[in-house]
Amino acid sequence: MSRGDLSLAxxxxxxxxxxxxxxxxxxxxxxxxxxxxVIGRTRLFQMDSVNIAARAHYMPMFSRxxxxxxxxxxxxxxxxxxxxxxxxxxxxxEAALIPIEDWPLFGWRRDEFRGxxxxxTREVMKxxxxxxxxxxxxxxxxxxSTPKQIEETLGIExxxxxxxxxxxxxxxxxxxxxxxxxxxxxxxxxENFVRHYDLTERVVGAELAGLQVSKEDAHRxxxxxxxxxxxxxxxxxxxxxxxxxxxxxxxxxxDLVAAGQLVPVQVDGWRDEAYLHxxxxxxxxxxxxxxxxxxxxxxxxxxxxxxLFGFRYRIEIYVPEHKRVHGYYVLPYLLGDDIVARxxxxxxxxxGVLQVLGAFLESGRxxxxxxxxxxxxxxxxxxWLGLDAVHIGDRGDLAxxxxxx
Length: 405
Hints:
Elements: H1 8-18, H2 32-42, E1 45-46, H3 59-65, H4 71-77, E2 87-91, E3 95-99, H5 107-112, H6 119-126, H7 129-142, H8 147-154, H9 171-181, E4 185-189, E5 195-199, H10 200-203, H11 206-210, H12 215-230, E6 232-234, H13 235-241, H14 246-258, E7 262-265, E8 274-277, E9 289-291, H15 302-309, E10 330-335, E11 338-348, E12 353-361, H16 367-384, E13 389-395, H17 399-404
Parallel strand pairs: 12-13
Antiparallel strand pairs: 1-3, 2-3, 4-5, 6-8, 7-8, 9-10, 10-11, 11-12
Helix pairs in contact: 2-3, 6-9, 12-13, 12-14, 13-14
């Protein structure tokens, strides 16, 4: 393909196909085969602790497949049957579930995090080398453990009145975090999303745990995976996918171009040169409709979402309530090849209601069509979450149409 021959509409369709939004939907309840297909497209499920609607790592499969048994994902990551683990948790884009076979590709990152990922954690590790040895010994003996369980085993008591939040965690928790970042420990989660630390070789297997990949080879492979997941992307897009440095990605891009895996192209309206993955296809149309997590790979790099869809999006969780524009936990809505609306959602599990606290139409999109499709998808999401009803609030210019659709 020569330079300058991709319209923005073509780029959108390429991206949506690469992300799995044009794949044939399952005719029955999704299975492990479908999970493998989705993770094969996205290469990661970003995680987040916010559970006001649905945890972020559950949403990409729902957005691409529709309702599915969330236990399917839990088993693939944390409770595998017969030892066949499919996913493992590590720092990829951010905290994420990645295919277990990709574990060796992050060895360079584990080396960089050898003393811990955050400054305070590194400081804790420097003064607690013996504690790290003790933590390792406890986990080796008792198996997957929480920091509290480790503290109890070691006879460590926190001062009275110290809560368990991040900024008040005991030093055992910080040591566990540092050892997780360095790859000395891995982790599994229980049904309440509580992380239990375990020895890495027991989670990913001794063979993968011991496999060494050079930084150069790892960046080439990660860039290739990002390119396949994105379809068409700038260097900045490719670097962001796994939060790598552009300086490390550019040599990988050059190698992949030379190997014919990437093709330099110009997308109409994009300032920077883009790279088309050689294996992509350009669908004639996209008929998907999907409620997206704020951390879906389609939109988690905000400059790319704006460049692709004209969709300016900022997460407002940490914005004071009176300063929020759209709401606390706002999910984009994809219809066809466009992001046409956003909804502020809350799953009121006690009353069994999916609350739509706000509904907002993107400028110039067809209100009636969007409201009708979104109404059906909100009901589907409520059913998937085990809720009985959907309640539409008053905020937003789409609320009235959504309420009457």
